[in-house]
Design brief:
The complex is a heterodimer.
Chain A: E1 5-13, E2 19-28, E3 33-37, H1 44-51, E4 59-64, E5 67-68, H2 74-83, E6 85-88, H3 100-109, H4 115-128, H5 144-156, E7 162-166, H6 174-191, E8 194-198, H7 202-205, E9 210-215, E10 218-219
Parallel strand pairs in A: 3-8, 3-9, 6-7, 7-8
Antiparallel strand pairs in A: 1-2, 1-4, 4-5, 9-10
Chain B: H1 2-16, H2 19-57, E1 62-66, E2 68-70, E3 73-75, H3 79-86, E4 91-104, E5 109-115, H4 117-124, E6 128-131, E7 140-143, H5 145-155, E8 162-170, E9 176-189, E10 199-203, H6 204-211, E11 219-224, H7 230-239, E12 243-246, H8 248-290, H9 292-300, H10 305-350, H11 367-393, H12 397-402
Helix pairs in contact in B: 1-10, 2-8, 2-10, 2-11, 8-11, 10-11
Classes of the chains: A alpha/beta, B alpha+beta.
Chain lengths: 221, 405
């Protein structure tokens, strides 16, 4: 069995006729730290959404550790998001009414984890991303970089084996961006979590093991 | 359970982020609940006072039953039926009666109830102001209080006197013929304020002998053990095809009247509740729109559609609970005000003779009403949240995260 993510002839066509992905076949090994680059509209976010079970392909398939994802099985998709895939967004997307600790613990609420365990796990991950002393801060009390660290911790909280980061440094300055990449890299090395990171910035892509480039919905390198 | 409480707590915090809107919505629901329980409390208070007045002024545990004709078939009061009634739960005593009409020599009409002395005493608890009961088989009678006064005043017939009763019979040609029957007045009943004040009681066997034959019972009086069990016994009587009457009918009439009034008033209260419910729907739809991105993120991190529905409905539940509590408080204050200010006002408008109708409470708030008020608030709130909750689950997570619906 092949560990990691594989896509086979993945195609996504929207209702308006636009083809976002055309026969995309790729393979990302478990524990890889991969950059996904391409121009705007090249299909990067669509690919991420399909891999994360937020969207479904028109044709083709996705395999996690050799197991085909059934996009018609809603329970399976929810389970995928709960236990296998974590998301990091450009806008951080923390819940404004919750503290940093609560934001990290939030996904576990839907996983039937007891409160103490949720908080313990969340605090452990906040420590991992260097925010142990910021647990009781609300998002607006944190800097952009800190918010994205919280988002990284949240992406990992369900013991995710894969983190899909959609332009995680798009809203950060270059120094903070580098710090975020370092944090993700450390998590990748320490926990063996696979990272697929969408980025426009070639120099940040150099932090990654390899780069996959999409152009007009196709893999070009 | 822990998860549910945590989601509930989270929903509470979400509500706190839009305090003013939630407060207005809660007040809307509270007014609806207060209107419902206020109206019911007022209606219940008036109903209670009216029934208590009837209870105080009437012999509620006395039921009179008669044969009844339905679809051409007459159900008679037979010995078998009487036995069945005697063994009916809550029936203390049964006294069958047949009625007759006599007249005095001066043509005073005498309504005669032919009874058995022991049975009628067990049912009516007869109290004598003069004399006592008749002896079985003897040509003796007892006068009701009003009749005693009338005959003593008009005809000089006193207790202990013998008098002649005229019993009208009809010959084969249908011509009336009066027969003289000597009777002795052995007792007079105390004042009862009912039909027994105007009747003559006579032994059943004597009455049958005077008439020449026993024609069957046309009435039976039943004593029930408690005013609250009267309707139970009446239902059993009517189930046998017989007709029942008595003071309990006044209570039934009061209940029917109050029910009819309450239904009309409740319509207005329900309008208030519907407005409250629509406010919740509006609040929650707005909230769902405002939190499009949050809901998308929630789905992205592993919440199921069921979880999202639950989060929205829990917010509605909290609005309902708070609205119900405040509504009950408003309703309680309304009953206090009605009892303090409303009663004197109504009596001043209706006249002092109505003061006895309204005892101490013109409005009565019961525990059942408080519970019902809470239940109404919660049910309306949850119902109002269904549409926004479904709307939230129909979001595409990808669009939702981007902030589009």
């Amino acid at each position: 069995m092949t560990m990691g993510i594989q896509t086979e002839s993945l195609t996504k066509q929207f209702a308006n006729g636009v083809t976002a992905l055309a026969n995309v076949s790729l393979s990302i090994g478990q524990g890889e730290f991969v950059a996904l680059v391409g121009r705007s509209g090249s299909g990067k976010s669509t690919l991420m959404n399909i891999l994360g079970g937020l969207d479904h392909p028109t044709s083709g398939s996705v395999l996690f550790d050799g197991i085909r994802v059934d996009y018609h099985d809603r329970k399976r998709l929810i389970d995928l998001r709960r236990t296998q895939v974590g998301f990091i967004f450009q806008q951080f997307n923390l819940l404004p009414g919750l503290t940093a600790l609560e934001n990290v613990a939030y996904p576990l609420l839907f996983n039937y984890a007891p409160r103490d365990e949720r908080n313990r796990t969340a605090m452990h991950l906040l420590t991992l991303v260097g925010l142990a002393d910021r647990g009781d801060h609300l998002p607006h009390q944190l800097s952009g970089g800190e918010q994205q660290r919280v988002a990284i911790a949240r992406a990992l909280v369900g013991n995710s084996r894969v983190v899909l980061a959609d332009e995680p440094t798009g809203n950060l300055d270059s120094k903070t961006s580098a710090e975020i990449y370092q944090v993700m890299r450390e998590v990748n090395r320490e926990k063996g979590v696979t990272f697929l990171i969408v980025t426009h910035e070639r120099d940040l892509a150099s932090y990654c093991d390899r780069t996959i480039e999409l152009r007009d919905g196709k893999v070009v390198s | 359970m822990g998860k549910e409480l945590d989601i509930l707590r989270l929903s509470g915090r979400q509500l706190m982020t839009k305090r003013l809107r939630v407060a207005l919505t809660v007040i809307g629901i509270a007014i609806g609940v207060a209107a419902v329980i206020g109206i019911v409390a007022l209606g219940d208070g008036i109903r209670y006072q009216a029934i208590e007045t009837i209870k105080a002024q009437s012999d509620l545990t006395l039921v009179e039953l008669h044969p009844k004709t339905t679809d051409g078939v007459t159900q008679l009061i037979t010995e078998a039926r009487l036995e069945q009634l005697r063994s009916t739960p809550h029936v203390v005593a049964v006294a069958p009666v047949f009625t007759d009409s006599y007249a005095t020599k001066k043509q005073t009409f005498l309504q005669v109830l032919a009874v058995r002395a022991d049975e009628i005493d067990r049912v009516l608890h007869l109290k004598y102001t003069q004399g006592g009961s008749f002896s079985p088989g003897a040509q003796e009678v007892i006068f009701g209080a009003d009749l005693r006064d009338k005959l003593q005043r008009n005809e000089g017939i006193r207790i202990g006197d013998n008098f002649t009763a005229m019993v009208r019979e009809y010959d084969e040609q249908g011509m009336p013929k009066d027969r003289e029957v000597p009777l002795k007045v052995v007792g007079a009943l105390g004042d009862r304020d009912d039909q027994f004040d105007r009747v003559v009681l006579i032994d059943m066997d004597t009455a049958a002998r005077i008439r020449g034959s026993f024609q069957g019972y046309d009435t039976a009086f039943i004593r029930v053990d408690d005013p609250d069990t009267v309707f139970l016994v009446v239902d059993k009587i009517t189930a046998q095809g017989l007709d029942a009457s008595g003071a309990f009918e006044q209570i039934r009439a009061v209940n029917q009247f109050m029910d009819a009034i309450l239904i009309v008033f409740m319509l207005f209260a329900v309008f208030a509740l519907v407005v409250g419910g629509l406010m919740i729907t509006t609040t929650m739809i707005t909230s769902v729109y405002e939190r499009t991105r949050e809901i998308g993120i929630t789905m992205a991190v592993g919440a199921s559609e069921h979880d999202v529905v639950r989060m929205v409905l829990y917010e509605c539940l909290l609005i309902g609970i708070i609205g119900g509590i405040i509504g009950n408080i408003f309703g309680f204050l309304f009953t206090l005000i009605m009892n303090a200010v409303g009663k004197p006002f109504i009596i001043s408008r209706l006249g002092s003779e109505f003061s006895s109708i309204f005892g101490n409470e013109i409005a009565r708030l019961s525990l059942e009403m408080v519970v019902a008020g809470m239940a109404i608030a919660i049910l309306f709130s949850l119902a109002a949240g269904i549409y926004p909750a479904i709307k939230a689950t129909r979001m595409n997570p990808v669009d939702a995260i981007r902030g589009f619906m």
